[in-house]
Each structure stands twice: as structure tokens, then as C-alpha cells.
Design brief:
The chain has 356 residues and is α/β, with parallel strands linked by helices. The protein folds into two domains: 197 residues, 3-Layer(aba) Sandwich (D-Maltodextrin-Binding Protein, domain 2), CATH 3.40.190; 92 residues, Periplasmic binding protein-like II (D-Maltodextrin-Binding Protein, domain 2, 3-Layer(aba) Sandwich). The chain contains 14 helices and ten strands. It has a five-stranded mixed sheet, with helices on both faces. Helix 8 crosses helix 12. The chain is globular.
């Protein structure tokens, strides 16, 4: 509310006092107008204004993946909770559909870092590619053979067609090992080849093949749609270094700061995933990322986080597991004994420096 100003009768104002009264009213008002507003610094006409703050530029990093599955759950977690952003990385994900295509992209420089499989990585090194494996994402693989509902055992796959990733790929190797426990040899069944797990599941559900080799969470999705689980690969093959990240040695040497940031961000995602307090959020995140049901994501969480724990702490590299892969290549006829030492294919230098 505006208060009325008191009126002073002119008869009470001595001559010459009108100017002084007016000045006494206006002077405090003028001084008040010169003061800075509350919370605002006084303006110094002799000093320039500071430049506007500029957001720090993030470091670009191109990461290749074969497909979007639960194998890389710590990576997806790090992406979801903002770990890469917090480390100043602008991560660009490329999904290339097969492990050989991904390793080729790493060698050519089309991607900086690749989420590789150890068997394909070893083959690349043996062909003189100057790449190395610098951190492990997933230890012993947990593939499942899923079959149509009328097939109840490995023995029932005699004379049937199974979809795997490639003639010399990991799923072909594991399938042969698993079926051998029932006395089936390579001539007792036939393979067709599809590189990525989601597409292998689709091929089986479409009826073109009788069985498929699948990774999580798509094995659970297949069961929910009527397929029968015959067994898991880790029941037969326990010592095998499965999935991790490789890069060109020269790129790693030139970009050590980027590698350090990547390792720290990834480790934050892994620790977050293994924290029981984040269970429901992790399940929801995997369901959305892989586009499977929350039920399938929950089954995968229970298998990975609560039982098997296949993500090695601090992404450490298991040299015995690398030797297991070398032995599998001997079994496939691609190498001979004695094999080169596992250290030929891996480099733990960066993990030792930055995964603490």
C-alpha cells in the first residue's frame, strides 16, 4: 500500500527552506538508487566483466560392440548412470553384428575400442595385427542350447540343424563340446550361421532350425516363448576367457588419458551393478536396453549378479582362461601345441595403473 506524504502548510515554511526540504527528500533516494541490488556486486567501471563460463569439451571415444546383450551389462550401466560423462568422455557406440567384423574395425581404426571375444582376438594377433586385450568384461561364457519343445535332450539333436555364430566361432566350439557329452560328433548334426544372438533366437522361433545357441537375456526370452533349455555351456567348459576390450597398441599409447578415463568409468558401472541396492534399477535398465521383458532381465540378474558373477572384479585378465581359449584353438585345428604364452595377447598395464 502507498502511504500519502504529509503536507506541510506553506505558512510554516520559512523563506528559502523549500529547496532544502526538497533536497533532504531527494538526496537519500538518489543515493539508494546508486547502491547495488541485493545479491548483486557493485559495478567497478575500471574493471572488465569476466568472460562467460565455457563447458569443458568432452573427449570423443568410439566403442564397437557385436550386439546389445547382457554380456556388456557393466558398460550399459556406466552409460546409464553417467559415468562416462563424469569422466569427460563422449562415448559413441557402434553395433557391428559379428566379432570378426568388430575386430576388423578395431584394426582399421574405424573404432577406437572393441568389445571383442578372445578367440577372434587371438586369430587377429596371429595374423600380425598390432592389437592387444587390455581388460576383461566377462569370464567364462554362459551360452545355452535352446531347442524346439519336442526336443528334450542333446541326443534328440542327432540329424537336426542348429544355428550358431560362425563355422569356427565360439558358439560352434561350445555346441560341439556340449553335444559330445551325449556321444554326438560333428557329422551327427548340421550348422547354419547367424552372427548375433537376437537374430539366432529369431531364426529358431521362425521354425527354420531345431536349436540355437543363445546368450542372456535372449535364452530366457526363448524359454518364455516355448523353447526348451537343454543345457548351459559353463556346465562343460569352465576355464575360458570370453569377452573383453581390445585396441591397437599405438592408439593405447597415444591416448592413455582416455584409456584411464574409460577404465574408471567402466569400473564405476561394474560396482554399481554389483550393489544390491541397485537391483530393480539395473533390471529395468537391461530390459529397456535389450528390449526384452523385465521378467527375462530379472532372470539374467539372478544368474549373473546373485549366482555366477561372471564380471571379474576390476576387469582383471585371467591368464589361465586365455590359455583355455588357446587350447580350444588347438582342438579346432587352428594352432598346435605348445601354444604361445597368454601374455602375447594381453596387456594389463593400464588396468594395473587405473583400476584401483
Amino acid at each position: 500500500m502507498t502511504r500519502p506524504r504529509p503536507v506541510v502548510p506553506k505558512a510554516l515554511i520559512p523563506p528559502g527552506m523549500s529547496f532544502l526540504i526538497t533536497l533532504s527528500i531527494l538526496l537519500p533516494l538518489g543515493l539508494a538508487l546508486l547502491q547495488p541490488a541485493s545479491g548483486q556486486a557493485a559495478i567497478d567501471p575500471g574493471r572488465e566483466s569476466p568472460p562467460a563460463a565455457v563447458a569443458p569439451q568432452r573427449i570423443p571415444l568410439n566403442v564397437g560392440h557385436v550386439s546389445i546383450t547382457a554380456i556388456s551389462w557393466p558398460f550399459w550401466a556406466a552409460e546409464s548412470i553417467g559415468s562416462f560423462d563424469q569422466e569427460g568422455l563422449a562415448v559413441d557406440v557402434n553395433v557391428l553384428g559379428s566379432a570378426p567384423a568388430l575386430t576388423t574395425a578395431v584394426i582399421s581404426g574405424a573404432v577406437d575400442v572393441g568389445r571383442a571375444t578372445m578367440d577372434v582376438h587371438i586369430r587377429a594377433v596371429e595374423r600380425s595385427a598390432d592389437v592387444t586385450w587390455f581388460m576383461t568384461e566377462f569370464g567364462t561364457p554362459i551360452y545355452a542350447i535352446l531347442a524346439r519343445s519336442n526336443i528334450t535332450s542333446y541326443a534328440d539333436l542327432r540329424g537336426q540343424t542348429i544355428v550358431v555364430d560362425a563355422p569356427n566361432g565360439i558358439t560352434a566350439f561350445l555346441t560341439r563340446r556340449m553335444l559330445a557329452t551325449a556321444g554326438l560328433g560333428p557329422d551327427d548334426y548340421s550348422f547354419v550361421y547367424v552372427g548375433a544372438t537376437p537374430e539366432r533366437l529369431a531364426a529358431m522361433l521362425a521354425g527354420g532350425v531345431q536349436a540355437s545357441m543363445l546368450i542372456q537375456p535372449f535364452d530366457f526370452a526363448g524359454e518364455r516363448q516355448g523353447a526348451r533349455r537343454l543345457g548351459n555351456s559353463n556346465e562343460v567348459v569352465r576355464n575360458y576367457e570370453f569377452a573383453g576390450y581390445n585396441a591397437r597398441r599405438d592408439w593405447l599409447a597415444r591416448n592413455e588419458d582416455t584409456v584411464a578415463r574409460y577404465i574408471r568409468a567402466y569400473l564405476a558401472g561394474q560396482r554399481w551393478l554389483y550393489d544390491p541396492a541397485n537391483k530393480e534399477q539395473a533390471i529395468l535398465g537391461l530390459s529397456e536396453k535389450t528390449r526384452v521383458s523385465a521378467e527375462d532381465a530379472r532372470a539374467t540378474y539372478e544368474m549373473y549378479v546373485e549366482r555366477e558373477r561372471p564380471f571379474p572384479p576390476s576387469m582383471r585378465i585371467n591368464l589361465a582362461g586365455v590359455q583355455g581359449v588357446l587350447d580350444s584353438l588347438v582342438e579346432l585345428g587352428e594352432m598346435t601345441q605348445p601354444t604361445p604364452p597368454p601374455s602375447k595377447y594381453v596387456d594389463s598395464t593400464y588396468l594395473n595403473r587405473y583400476s584401483q
